Amino acid sequence: MIHFHVITLFPESIEPYLTSSILGRAQRKSGRPKRGERSKIRISFYDPKDFVYPDRGPGAAKHKRLPRVDDRPYGGGPGMVLEPTAILRAVEKALKKANRKKPEVIFFATDGKQFDESMARALSRKRDVVLVCGRYEGVDARVQKILKAKKVSIGPYVLTGGELPAAMLIDAVSRFVPGVLGKTASLESSRIASPDVYTRPEVLTWKGKRYKVPKVLLSGHHAAINEWKKSRKSGG
C-alpha cells in the first residue's frame, strides 16, 4: 500500500475527486474482505491551520485571533506568502505517521522537474509520499530547503494552488499500484491504445448526420485492429 500525505489549507477542494470512482475503491476494502486484504492506497490530509499555536504572537489567545498561516513577503510585492512554521509542523506530523523507509517529500514549484509517467511509475514503489501544496504567492522557500523536498512541476503554467497538482499526481501514481486498476492491460503503456475509442451504437445519428464506427473495429480481425490502433496512436 502507498500512503499519500497531503499538506493543504483546502482539503475540501480535492477530497471529493480522490474519494470517487477508482481512487475511492482503492481506499476501501471490499464488502467481504479476504484475510490479509487491505486498501491499495491511503490518503491523509494535514491542514497547516491546525498547527498554528495560540502563542504565535502577543495577545493572540486573549483576542481569539483566527490562526494565520500567511504573511507579507519580505522585499515587497503583491499577495501573501505561507509562513514556514505551520507547514513544517504539518509535514512533521505526516512523517511521524510514515513508514520507516524514507518517504518522498514533494514540493510543487514551477521550476521543478516535469512530472511524467516515468516519475509516476517510480513514485508508485514508495510507501509514503508527502505532497506540499502551496497557495497565494507560494510557500516560504526555506521549507523546501529544510525538508530537502523534491521540486516537481506539472506543466509550464501557474495555478492558484497546489491542490490540483496533488490530485493529478495521486491519480497518475495510483494507476501503477498493483490492484488499483481492474486489469493491468488498462495501463496505456502496456497495451496497444488509440486516442479514438468507440462503443454502441454502431451508427450514431446526430442532428441529421450519421457517424459510423470504423469498419476495421467491427471486423473481428485482431491483427488489422491492432495495426489501425498503432496508426492512430502515431497520428497516421
How would you explain this protein's 3D organization?
With 236 residues, the protein is of the alpha/beta class. It has two domains: 183 residues, 3-Layer(aba) Sandwich (Alpha/beta knot); 42 residues. The strands form three sheets. A five-stranded parallel β-sheet has the order 2-1-6-5-7. The longest helix has 14 residues. The radius of gyration is 23 Å and the shape is elongated.
How much helical structure, as a percent, in the residues? 25-40%
CATH topology call of the largest domain? Alpha/beta knot
- The CA-CA distance between the termini, in Å, is 40 Å
Listing every helix as H and every strand as E from the N terminus to the C terminus, the arrangement reads EHHEEEHEHEHEHEEH
List the total number of helices.
7
Largest sheet: 5 strands, parallel
Q: How many separate structural domains?
A: 2
Envelope shape: elongated
Q: What is the CATH architecture annotation of the largest domain?
A: 3-Layer(aba) Sandwich
- Which structural class fits the helix and strand makeup? alpha/beta
Low-confidence stretches: 56-63
Radius of gyration: 23 Å
* Sequence of strands across the biggest β-sheet: 2-1-6-5-7
CATH class of the largest domain: Alpha Beta
Mean pLDDT across the residues is 86
- How much of the polypeptide forms β-strand, as a percent range? 15-25%
Number of E-type strands: 9
